[in-house]
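Work Package 3 (structural annotation) set out to generate three-dimensional models for the target panel prioritized at the project kickoff. During this period the team completed the workflow that converts sequence records into discrete structure tokens, so that structures can be stored uniformly alongside our sequence database. As a representative example, we reproduce one entry of 385 residues exactly as it appears in the project archive.
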Amino acid sequence: MIQFEFATAARIIFGTGSLGHLESLTTGMGRRALVVLGGSGQRAEPVIQHLVFNSIAYTTFNVLGEPTTATAREGTALARREGCDFVIGIGGGSVIDAGKAIAALLTNGGDPLDYLEVIGRGQPLTQAAAPYIAIPTTAGTGAEVTRNAVLGSPEHLVKVSLRSPLMLPAVALIDPELTLTLPPPITASTGLDALTQVIEPYVSPQATPLTDGFCLDGMHRAARSLWTAYRNGDDLDAREDMALASLEGGLALANAKLGAVHGFAGVFGGMFDSPHGAVCAALLPPVMEVNLRALLERQPDSEALYRYEEIAQILTGDPDATALDGVVWVEKLVEDLLIPGLGSYGLTKADFPALIQKAGRSSSMKGNPIKLTDEELAEILEKAI
């Protein structure tokens, strides 16, 4: 019996030049926009020009690095002071998540800790978030179509999610042209995050026929285009493939969960100053390898084993590829894209117990195809260091 629920942004607009739809999208949204953008704000310039041209009042809020609970508080306070009643986020996953959190707090009130999982009170949101237009400028997180915002808590040394279906953006606008100027290192790390996010939901116990379709198409696109986008950032076809793979990953993970890569990555990002995509990239090959061995030893009839084999055949382009061939392919891609090991961010073996303990409580671990032992989790970290 097939049963599932699927939720995403109210409206998704994808395609080269789709930023031109912004004028019609903002009509009736509200009186004043809070524009959430990255440190430089350079990629938000077309949005600002549109608001000025159409006489839409706005206030800007810059997100420096990955958002924290303090970021959400500051952005919400600014929006209230300035009378903002809708939000536009334009930037990478950090910016999109910050905008999502601000839009939710703007209508629900209170503090982020009232609603946060794990470290907070975990209260449910009761009011729909303020109207939110999410415009990604990287191809990696798929945050424009997910129901959560990842926030760091420096005092707890962890990153956790503010999560609710009420946080889904009103509009997700994905224009691949906005990714053309991404430098190679960011193309690599965000692209490998996108790849991770079409692999993990595909082997999740909560995968559905609907999420499977997104994952399979996303894997094909990332396999053929990530290296091209890295080597030649001006290749619009490759950028389009990666933008769509990222979107598909967001659609999949929001409805089928993730796995041990993200179970570790969120915790790691709270303990060490590190870019999320690069951390996921370093973890992906060892997680695949350890999952495969654990499944073979303890669940040899698991459907996930057949799915890992299918993943390998898509990634390598070889219909006879084994699941282990897929691990080797990903390892080589990570190496070719110059992704550093986790030790470069300060991880040592002394940190393993705390990292494993915290990761074991993360919601993403529940989507892993098999429950891993502490020894297996330590092996993953050892291989990723």
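Strands lie at 11-14, 32-37, 57-62, 86-91, 132-136, 148-153, 158-163, 171-174.
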